[in-house]
Design goal:
- This protein is an alpha/beta fold and 230 residues long.
- It has a single domain, classed as Dihydrofolate Reductase, subunit A (3-Layer(aba) Sandwich), CATH 3.40.430.10.
């Protein structure tokens, strides 16, 4: 599916799409394919007053959230977001990105092979992670910073072609700066939060062009697919 021009882009009702049509609308456009999924308010807040994204999402966002997870081969998430959002072990493999190499407590009891740690050679919790996730699931990619280009390639080599990142904003910034993001799935909920809240991307100064693929709407919520221009 090619990106649409402004004249071709039509707002489609999310409720008008059954599950099969929605899956086709969000089919990956290549291999390997790394997409990032975020929700924010109209004024750009990626979290509610409790500091969590779950306090601003809604049923429309949840439907696409569940679909993207169902399509994905693996989930890529920063360790800080995993702790803040209190992630439990998902049904698909989860890749923790962490410079400290520390496995979040909520994932420590995961079944063998379910959690992969992507970290660095200088990580203070390297030995601890190796014992928890196993040597095959420990990816040491870089000396002080996780090599995200190498991470995408390593996940693809394991057969995980559809790679889904759910944040956080700093990991998204690093992935975008590394040039490995293929697509942004962005839900805008019809709310204003105000105050000092994280945006969906943080930590880097970048200017990346995006091309719209589709826009869906339900009860004022806008769900967009955006390709990263190469």
């Amino acid at each position: 599916m090619a990106a649409m021009s402004d004249s071709d882009l039509t707002l489609v009702g999310l409720r008008d799409l059954d599950d099969e049509a929605l899956a086709a609308a969000y089919a990956p456009l290549g291999e390997p394919w790394l997409r990032v999924n975020f929700v924010s308010t109209v004024d750009g807040a990626a979290q509610g007053d409790d500091g969590l994204s779950k306090s601003i999402n809604n049923d429309a966002d949840k439907r696409v959230f569940d679909l993207l997870r169902a399509q994905a081969d693996c989930l890529v998430v920063g360790a800080g977001t995993l702790r803040a959002e209190e992630y439990m072990v998902p049904p698909l493999p989860i890749v923790v990105v962490s410079r400290s190499g520390r496995v979040p407590e909520s994932l420590a009891g995961a079944p063998p092979g379910r959690v992969t740690m992507a970290t660095v050679a200088t990580a203070p919790h390297l030995a601890e992670s190796r014992a928890l996730v196993g040597p095959e699931q420990l990816l040491v990619l870089g000396e002080d910073q996780v090599d995200l280009v190498a991470l995408k390639a390593e996940l693809a080599a394991r057969g995980w072609m559809d790679q889904l990142c759910e944040g956080g904003p700093h990991l998204f910034g690093s992935l975008a700066a590394a040039g490995v993001v293929d697509e942004l799935c962005h839900t805008i909920v019809p709310r204003l939060i105000g105050g000092q809240h994280l945006r969906i991307l943080a930590g880097v100064d970048i200017d990346v062009a995006l091309e719209p693929v589709s826009l869906l709407e339900q009860d004022g919520t806008i769900l967009g697919r955006w390709l990263v221009s190469r």
